[in-house]
Amino acid sequence: MSGHPSFPMNTPEHTPALPARIDRRTAVRWMLTAAAAIPALKPRLLASAGSGAQPFAKGYGTDPDLVRDYKPGDLWPLTFADAQRATAVRLCDLIIPADRESPAASQVGVVDFIDEWISAPYPEQRRDRGVVLDGFTWLDAEARRRFAREFARLDDSQARAICDDICYEAKAQPAFAAPAAFFALYRDLTAGGFYTTPEGTKDIKFVGNMPLITFDGPPEAVLRKVGLL
User: What is the per-residue pLDDT across 120-179, written as a single tens digit (0 to 9) for each?
Assistant: First the structure.
């Protein structure tokens, strides 16, 4: 990758990606699979040799305590150092910023969720750990190359200029192929975390899994629309 900081991962296969910032219409399209988004995340690239050096815990096994109120770090040591956490917050909030309807992704614990996810001692999470940490390294190197400061310290226009080059895997230039794979994974994690929180489901007006005192059946207009009346 001449002229760009190196990114120590293999070239990924190209899969459809979405814009850097997730709009509400896109979120609605995702809602049918949002609840299962994290277990179904497509395995990404293998971590580079230097990314997974820290030892992993054994995990919670096959019988976790489902009534315990777990806090981040209770099950295994977390990964993010302060600088990495700052990058994580910045990128999460570029993907899902605060608006009049909902808070930003980092305000509802998405960064803690991503840190917990990549710290887990299971094969998929260990792969993702390398991708995410290498991605943060690339973002900082690219930010310094373009703007002489770390990614977390960029203003919105500068940060988006970098994200625009990596937010769509299918159209990313060859020099940005690996960073684009990182961005796709990170966006999946951010959206999966955000849209399974109470704030995220409220944001897209999802009202499933709510107890009802009575149920009168589907409205007549709906039944007519689907040809049942």
Answer: 999 999 999 999 999 999 999 999 999 999 999 999 999 999 999 999 999 999 999 999
Query: Residue 143: what residue type?
Result: A
CA dihedral for 62, 68, 72, 76, sign (positive or negative): negative
Q: Which residue has the tokens 């796709």?
A: 184
Grade residue 218 by pLDDT with cuts at 50, 70 and 90: confident
Q: Which two tokens stand for residue 194?
A: 């955000």
CB neighbourhood size of 71 (10 A): 9
The pTM score is 0.69
Half-sphere exposure of 101 (CA within 13 A, CB side): 11
Per residue in 144-159, pLDDT tens? 999 999 999 999 999 9
SS (H, E, C) 46-109: CCCCCCCCCCCCCCCCCCCCCCCCCCCCCCCCCCCCHHHHHHHHHHHHHHCCCCCCCCCHHHHC
| DSSP, res 12 | P
The H helix count followed by the E strand count for the chain is 8, 0
Question: What whole-number distance in Å separates Cα of residue 51 and Cα of residue 75?
Answer: 21
